[in-house]
TrEMBL record:
Domain of life per record: Bacteria
Protein known as: Alpha/beta hydrolase
Pfam families: Abhydrolase_1
Protein source organism: Streptomyces ziwulingensis
Record domain AB hydrolase-1: where: 28-275
């Protein structure tokens, strides 16, 4: 899919790392945080629709895409501070935040740590880190979470994946989608090129290796519910989320005001596989957001 020409690319050193983000549109700010194994490019089907009414900011997270890939700082509190630094750089006092997968983990920590800076939050196809830690067992590993453990092994994943990035990534894109051929070869190649960059595989591994820190942070304030309205969306057909958990019930344990949408005939990459549903639900949820 062709990326719209109105998208512009930016970089700046923020929170101690060189961050890359794209922007489009004008209006109240809406931030899009991608997950694994993606980059900002995972939002290419949302950006044009959102940019008609909003200023859309889609960064590459720490360790991903064209953002710097340091050896540390992958706990979600630090990654949320990356987002905060970007907001301050752009002069955005308050935002609507949409996060998918890992981006939803960053968004969850942001919503708890920076309550005055977020107006509403969309958590897409995500079970929070603490909940996974509390329910993880061999059966859950077999259901789809095996790579959580694999990526936490020091050094080995980098050695095995190097030179095999296309095989590694394509496994997830195909097995995590209701339609295995959802992504074209051209679209997959965009991601493969991103993950072949020096440090990119290590960056995604470090994201998962931060799990003990993330769980500790989540336990510190697990009794403090998210204040802003939350929309949680998930693919009904993804084995590790929609088929493994009562997603709406999980999120009711994290936030005061939660609405849930299950997306039929959809896997993990909701915004790519069913963009018409995602865009409609997100735009409805954003209605009234005026900055």
């Amino acid at each position: 899919m062709t990326v719209p020409t109105e998208i512009t690319h930016h970089t700046a050193v923020l929170n101690g790392i060189n961050q890359h983000w794209v922007s489009a549109g004008q209006g109240p700010p809406v931030y899009l945080l991608h997950g694994f194994p993606e980059t900002w490019y995972g939002w290419r089907k949302q950006i044009p629709a959102l940019a008609e009414k909003y200023t859309v900011i889609a960064p590459d997270l720490r360790g991903y895409g064209d953002t710097e890939k340091p050896a540390s700082g992958y706990d979600k509190r630090t990654m949320a501070q990356d987002t905060l630094a970007l907001m301050d750089h752009l002069g955005h006092e308050r935002i609507a935040l949409i996060g998918h997968d890992r981006g939803a983990r960053v968004g969850t920590r942001f919503a708890k740590d920076h309550r005055g800076r977020i107006d509403r939050f969309v958590a897409m196809d995500n079970i929070p880190t603490r909940v996974i830690a509390d329910t993880y067992d061999v059966a859950m590993a077999r259901q789809g979470y095996w790579f959580f453990t694999f990526l936490q092994v020091p050094d080995l994943p980098e050695a095995l994946i190097a030179g095999n990035e296309e095989v590694w990534l394509t496994h997830f894109y195909r097995s995590w989608s209701y339609n295995p051929d959802m992504l074209t070869a051209e679209e997959i190649d965009v991601y493969v090129r991103a993950y072949r960059q020096p440090g990119a595989v290590r960056g995604s591994c470090m994201d998962y290796r931060a799990a003990p820190q993330d769980v500790a942070q989540d336990r510190e304030d697990e009794d403090q519910l998210i204040d802003c309205p939350v929309l949680t969306m998930w693919g009904e057909d993804f084995s590790a989320v929609g088929k493994a958990y009562d997603v709406l019930d999980v999120w009711k344990g994290l936030a005061r005001d939660v609405r849930g949408v299950a997306i039929p005939r959809c896997g993990h990459l909701c915004q790519e596989e069913r963009p018409e549903i995602v865009n409609a639900e997100v735009l409805a949820f954003l209605d009234g957001w005026n900055g």
